[in-house]
Amino acid sequence: MLAAIDKHVKNLIAEVDLKIKNKSDNVVHSKKWTFGTTEVTVRLYKQQWTTLLQILGAKHDNTKTEEERRKGLSGFAPRDSGRPVYWLPLALRWSTSKSQIRESIIDSSNPLDGWSRQSILSTTNQQRTAKNDLNGLLYFHVRSTIERFCNRLQDSDSKTRIIFYCIDAVVLPKLLPNETCRAGFDRIEVSNIADEAYLGLRKTLATFAPLLKNKSNNPHAALLTLFLNACEIADRNMGNETNMKVVRARIDQVTKYLPLKHWHRQADGQLDMIKMMVAKELVRDYDGIFAWYMDAVGFETYAKEAGIGEKGVKMKRHNSITEAWPMRLKKKAGEKGADEEFQRLMAANSVGAERYVEWVRKE
What we know:
By secondary structure, the chain is an alpha/beta fold. The protein contains 18 helices and 7 strands. The protein has a 4-stranded mixed sheet with strand order 4-5-7-6. Strands 1-2-3 form a 3-stranded mixed sheet.
């Protein structure tokens, strides 16, 4: 993948960076490329173009062969190992200041956490590299995903337009072409910026709901929001973490999946306790917790104030685009496949609190 970036992408960015060298720093500079029926436009500020070129030119080793990866040599190289760093994100981290490194290397920075663990561990991927080489499996999964996407664009007869920005989400509608805003969008996905730590639901709906197509043009046009932190905040504010009745009920649920066998041995008993503390988050009553959060935040009020007339938007009762709780523990203890699902979720950096909400126009 990195060789392809070097060969096909870096020079394109370098040409733009050179062309705008003496132009204003305070305006967005746009460049469009056409590949068959696909148009790709990148709109960035001058410094962002330069930074992008630096990212693409970061030192990395792209000479690893398929055979080397198959033997389990792919993945992150330790900083003092003497081996060249050939995964771009890590190369960038070590090239930044200590403060930036400290801010960027956190638990959620693990690239494995951005993909379905079940998909990464697919039989197809395991035929390409060592079974326990998680980073190698991730490499093949990401590469095949990108290849499928590119092949679909290449085989399509219809015109596709892709536009890249790197700006504050609130500013985005002001930079979009007027005809695009008037036409509206069939679907808008905004990741988890609706979490209160970021834009919050009120600003997110007010900013993006007006960009949805009218009901007459597409009755299924939807805004998709993801809440990653909502249930954690609600659970804490509800006092569940210190309510011994709730804690005991969760522990009872966990022991159905994770029997405690080593309490008589101190070291193993401590390990069991750590597993218990982690696992009890998987069995929380997320429906009840999220209902409390919706009421506390004021989902209905913000939906009415969405900025598209008196009716605003509404939250769909049943999702039609994506599963409401994709990372949730679904199988009950004793059901076929329950143990495998439980162990898979325990190995992943998710607790089942990830909630997708879909919004549509009311009128």
